[in-house]
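Narrative summary of target 7.
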Amino acid sequence: MALMTAPAATDSATVATVATAGIVAFFEALTPQSVAEISHYYAPQARFKDPFNDVTGVPAITGIFAHMFVALESPRFVVTERIVQGQQCFLTWEFRFRFKRFKPTQEQVIWGGSHLVFSSDGLVILHRDYWDAAEELYEKLPVVGSVMRWLKKRANS
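Modeled conformation, tokenized:
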């Protein structure tokens, strides 16, 4: 019986499809220990940007995700949809976690999306996260949350 292997990724769409499957599996299984494996998925000078960070390079990106496990309890990603086109993809996701001090038993959810651009060898060269920090995070915090809800109410009236 012949050994079956995955088809070689030869065109940019195939590279992106294979890379997307790998990065989704990586993030959905992310642990404090596996954060160190980011270099298997990101190019050395990859850029990562979200509402709080704008960094370049694998060490800086690794630091962001390592800090996530220090600052939050049980953080995890659930990818809900993916669109792959050319050498890029867009993922929609849920980020689930608990605050360590504020309502530590209540799971929080942030809904967002990620735009990823891949190099010709399937490594992420750009990772841009989109999510609403005001609605998804600040409104859930004491004091800041009440101010944000008040501002939102004033803006909508």
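Residues 83 and 90 are 5 Å apart (CA to CA).
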